From TrEMBL:
Homodimer. This is UDP-glucose 4-epimerase. Pfam families: Epimerase. SUPFAM superfamilies: NAD(P)-binding Rossmann-fold domains (SSF51735). Pathway: Carbohydrate metabolism; galactose metabolism.
């Protein structure tokens, strides 16, 4: 029987890019999204979109059975670090309680494999960068804690029930499809790249740099920005590996190269050809100083390497999607 993949959160930033990548390879996919992020990206013709909650077991179960789903790629969730500090109840509800309902329904329906969007936030403040997968996991915000909890559930389901799973720990998802038809559009937008490009384009207020007293080379936070198109290709490879009967487990998806906030702003100014108005503000709660992936395990296991994540390409793609 041909494979059918259920994509939760397929109307979101990373999920919509994955839907296109899968469809371009002729894969059969169905999207489940409750629309809570308020985005409605253009998706490939013919892709079924079910409006529903991952925690609604009746909806999930009937969808899995009706479409014959044999793999799940689970992107749906709440994603803002700052909001998770002020409203942890929401993060544990969506990212843990409802996600566990999805997982349990998948088990009952005998779905053999699942890919999960995890995050660098599971590591917290790392002891050393670049960060390998077996580094200590001590999240410093409820967002990271909620994602790590779901990873623990996957591990336990794998051991007890033979579920084959991968937890793909993205570092900072960024960029956009080179066609310009998809874009990073969170509401409210909290991510650095859209905020700084829009500030440079005069569409938003000046950018605030959150802190300049971090122990990094220029005092601003360092992150590892990974293009969504590279994320999508890693997911396809991970799905194939699971389908071939292999275990995958946790994998970092990053480039291994960190960029500071100031370096990002400098590169954005070059790509924009104009200044990004900005000021320096206090630190944002829950921000680790430096998060850079050691991507070697993903490269070995998946035979994958980031291709479009160099800063000029990544920012040019992001800019094209906003103009
Ligand atoms: N953007 C990043 O930098 C980044 C980094 C690391 C990990 N991640 C993870 O990747 C995943 C996707 O992130 P994104 O940036 O595309 O976020 P996004 O907000 O654009 O997409 C999430 C999607 O999930 C949907 N959703 C939320 N709650 C739902 C529910 N209860 N039931 C059904 N659908 C629901 C939303 O409507 C949205 O379309 C998330 O799990 C996030 O934690 C993102
Ligand atoms: O107006 C802004 C917005 C961000 N930043 C800084 O820019 C960096 C990147 O911030 P942001 O784009 O908000 O991403 P992160 O907070 O690093 O979090 C992202 O990356 C994490 C993994 O690193 C994921 O888990 C999260 O889902 C995703 O939101 C951080 O140092 C922020 O302090 C600013 O200085 N000013």
């Amino acid at each position: 029987m041909p494979s059918v993949t259920l994509i939760t959160g397929g109307l979101g930033f990373v999920g919509s890019h994955f839907v296109w990548a899968a469809a371009r390879e002729g894969r059969d996919v169905v999207v489940l999204d409750d629309g809570s992020a308020g985005t409605s990206p253009e998706l490939p013709e013919g892709v079924e979109v079910v409006r529903g909650d991952i925690g609604d077991r009746a909806t999930v179960g009937s969808l899995i059975r009706r479409r014959g789903v044999d793999a799940i790629v689970h992107f749906a969730g709440k994603i803002q670090v700052g909001e998770s500090v002020t409203n942890p109840a929401l993060y544990f509800d969506v990212n843990v309680v409802r996600a566990l309902a999805l997982l349990e329904e998948a088990r009952v329906a005998e779905v053999p494999r699942i890919l999960f969007s995890s995050t660098a936030a599971v590591y917290g403040e790392p002891e050393a960068v670049p960060i390998p997968e077996d580094a200590p996991k001590r999240p410093v915000n409820p967002y990271g804690a909620s994602k790590l909890t779901f990873e623990h559930a996957l591990e336990a389901y794998g051991r007890a029930y033979g579920l084959r799973w991968a937890a793909l720990r993205y570092f900072n998802a960024a960029g956009a499809d080179p066609s310009g038809k998809l874009r990073e559009a969170h509401d409210p937008e909290t991510h650095l790249i859209p905020l700084m490009l829009d500030a440079g384009l005069g569409r938003r207020p000046p950018l605030t740099l959150f802190g300049e007293d971090y122990p990094t080379r220029d005092g601003t936070c360092e992150r590892d920005y990974i293009h969504v198109v590279d994320l999508a290709s890693a997911h396809l490879k991970a799905l194939d590996r699971l389908a071939a009967g292999h275990a995958v487990g946790p994998l970092n998806l990053g480039t291994g190269q960190g960029s500071t906030v100031r370096e990002m702003v400098d590169e954005a100014e070059r790509v924009l050809g104009r200044a990004v108005p900005r000021s320096v503000g206090p630190r944002r709660a829950g921000d680790p100083s430096s998060l850079v992936a050691d991507p070697r395990r993903a490269e070995e296991v998946l035979g994958w390497k980031a291709q479009r994540s160099d800063l000029p390409t990544l920012l040019e793609d992001a800019l094209r999607s906003r103009t």
